[in-house]
Amino acid sequence: MGGAVVFRAKPVHKGRAALHWSRRLLRAPLGLAGAVVMAGVAAVALLASLLAPVPPDLQDLEARLTPPFWAGGSPRHLLGTDHLGRDVLSRLLHGTRSTLLVAGTAVALAGGVGTVCGLVAGYYGGRVDAVLGRIMDVQLAVPYMLLAIVLVMLLGPGVANTILVLVVGGWVVYARLVRAEALSLRAREFVLAARVVGNPDHRILLRHVLPNTVNSLVIIATIELGNIMLFESSLSFLGLGVRPPLISWGSMLSDGRDYLTVAWWVAAFPGLAITLTIFGVNQLGDWLRDVLDPRLGLS
Q1: Paired strand residues for 81
Q2: Which residue in 88, 102, 109, 196 has a CA-CA distance of 20 to 30 Å to 263?
């Protein structure tokens, strides 16, 4: 046999690639808005301790339910205080860290578990695919929030259990996506060629199948981040998620629901933070989908 012909991709300069992506983002106003919002949220989470004017758990009963400074309140508490005299702005900033930590960890773990299960089911097929497929079908038949509430009630509230519940409820999305991609890729010529030359299955999965699912995984993970944030906030609102001394936007909403008529700001600002963050995540995810999904014809 003659020597093999090796095709090498033309190297792409990192600076040019970054400039190209920046220009594409600037031409998409909503995508740019989402990127700015998420960059701001990430910066707040990292710098919460420096940005917070006072400790988030510092109580001052003499200043309880102080309105925001523009509504007749004190400049010391820019966004007012809650029913225990705690500064709303400080708690909002620290709640950003907890919300992103829980949601980001849950998305990463759910994506990892779902990707492994999807690769195995799609590549091997047969009984493995049938068993995993039935598990996914059963879980999809149960409403996500109902499943989360039942699991948290069984395991108890807390950060670790909240993340576990979100992972159990979220891995199916990634598994179904990767399974579909693997079913298509396993019959492609480059996968068959890799199998013929003697590559083991794990090498084929890691070197040939998985890299071709990365774009889809990035899109789904970005969009799912907003859903996970919403579910985490809902669990915390019900008292089944993040527990003190950690602060969650959902628990802040729960604290303010009894004071809506006399102190609207206690619940309004964490609700606005949740809405704005989910808007940013969704817009960024939509932009990434348009750019990375070749089936849309926009990349």
Answers
A1: 87
A2: 102
> Quick count: other Cβ atoms within 10 Å of Cβ 131?
11
> How many Å apart are CA 20 and CA 34, to the nearest integer?
18
Best CA proximity match to 79, nearest among 269, 275, 277: 269
Phi, psi of 145 (to 5 degrees): -65, -40
Residue 25 scores a pLDDT above 80 = no
| pLDDT tens by residue, 174-205 | 999 999 888 888 888 888 888 888 888 888 88
Q: Which of 16-20, 155-159, 230-234, 254-258 has the lowest mean pLDDT?
A: 16-20
- Please give the Cα distance from 159 to 167 (Å, whole number): 12
Tally the residues of the chain. 299
Fold category of 29-296 in CATH: MetI-like fold (1.10.3720)
- pLDDT (tens digit per residue) in 70-103: 888 788 889 989 989 899 999 999 999 888 999 9
CA distance 80 to 70: 10
Let me know: does 88 contact 36? Beta carbons within 8 Å: no
DSSP string, 209-239: IGGGGHHHHHHHHHHHHHHHHHHHHHHHHTT
Domain ranges for the chain = 29-296
d(CA 151, CA 180): 29
